[in-house]
Amino acid sequence: NAGVTQTPKFQVLKTGQSMTLQCAQDMNHEYMSWYRQDPGMGLRLIHYSVGAGITDQGEVPNGYNVSRSTTEDFPLRLLSAAPSQTSVYFCASRYSTHQSHEQYFGPGTRLTVT
Amino acid sequence: KNEVEQSPQNLTAQEGEFITINCSYSVGISALHWLQQHPGGGIVSLFMLSSGKKKHGRLIATINIQEKHSSLHITASHPRDSAVYICAVTQGSGAGSYQLTFGKGTKLSVIP
């Protein structure tokens, strides 16, 4: 298994540009999520999905969109990038939405918005 | 919302020392997770526990549900243990619940 994969690893955007961060998992996990990690703060939940076709907002959803058309893929879209979105983004998945299960994280995408 | 506090924020140890990192939370949980993040690297799950104690190699995690407190111990520390250790908790019930709430992490440096 490849586990959770993310692309790209690094990205630099100009303010106002849009882009999509890709996330895929090959473990047939129901639950997938996106977090951002900023210095001095814990990881914060952006959006999550409990299955194909079902998404919901997390703690910091503004400026981001998601969709889940398949079990495997969960892309994160930045609609109009702002410097405040400079961060490291992690995608994660776990087997079940109904219980506490071990979470598997992708390698992260380091995004800089200038 | 659960508040997750870790201490210390930074820790420097000599190789071979016994290390303890603490985590406390404010509201009852369904499980507590310890995660490891190496510099510039991804995040790896070390333990998930809801009671008692778990051991994996030189790492031991304990939890006291009544006290709302968990500790991560590293015995015979080694420079390769240098990383950020993150405590996270899940709480809730029903589909879509069990979201993780994270602490800010403890940065461990082990000096040879």
H/E topology pattern of chain B: EEEEEEEEEEE
Largest interface, C-beta closer than 8 angstroms, per-chain residues? A-B, 25 and 27 residues
**Percentage of residues in helical conformation of chain B:** under 10%
How many DSSP-defined strands of chain B? 11
Oligomeric state of the chains?
heterodimer
* Low-pLDDT residue spans of chain A: none
Choose one word for the global shape of chain A.
globular
Strand content of chain B: over 45%
* Alpha-beta content class of chain B: mainly beta
Q: Structural class, from secondary structure content of chain A? A: mainly beta
- The count of DSSP E runs of length 2 or more, i.e. the number of strands of chain A, is 11
Largest sheet of chain A: 7 strands, mixed
Beta-strand share of residues of chain A: over 45%
Q: List the total number of helices of chain A.
A: 0
Distance between the termini of chain B: 40 Å
Write the topology of this structure:
The complex is a heterodimer of chains A (114) and B (112).
Chain A: E1 4-7, E2 10-13, E3 19-25, E4 31-37, E5 44-51, E6 54-57, E7 64-66, E8 76-78, E9 87-94, E10 104-105, E11 109-113
Chain B: E1 4-7, E2 10-14, E3 19-25, E4 31-37, E5 43-49, E6 52-56, E7 59-64, E8 69-74, E9 83-91, E10 99-102, E11 106-111
Parallel strand pairs in B: 2-11
Antiparallel strand pairs in B: 1-3, 3-8, 4-5, 4-9, 6-7, 7-8, 9-10, 9-11
Q: How would you explain this protein's 3D organization?
A:
The complex is a heterodimer of chains A (114) and B (112). Chain A has strands at 4-7, 10-13, 19-25, 31-37, 44-51, 54-57, 64-66, 76-78, 87-94, 104-105, 109-113. Chain A is mainly β and 114 residues long. By secondary structure, chain B is mostly beta strands. Helix content of chain B is 0%, strand content 59%. Chain B has no helices and 11 strands. Chain B has strands at 4-7, 10-14, 19-25, 31-37, 43-49, 52-56, 59-64, 69-74, 83-91, 99-102, 106-111. In chain B, strands 2, 4, 5, 9, 10 and 11 form a 6-stranded mixed beta sheet that branches. Chain B is globular, with a radius of gyration of 14 Å. Chain B starts with a strand and ends with a strand. The chains are: A mainly beta (114), B mainly beta (112). The interface between A and B is medium-sized, with 25 and 27 residues.
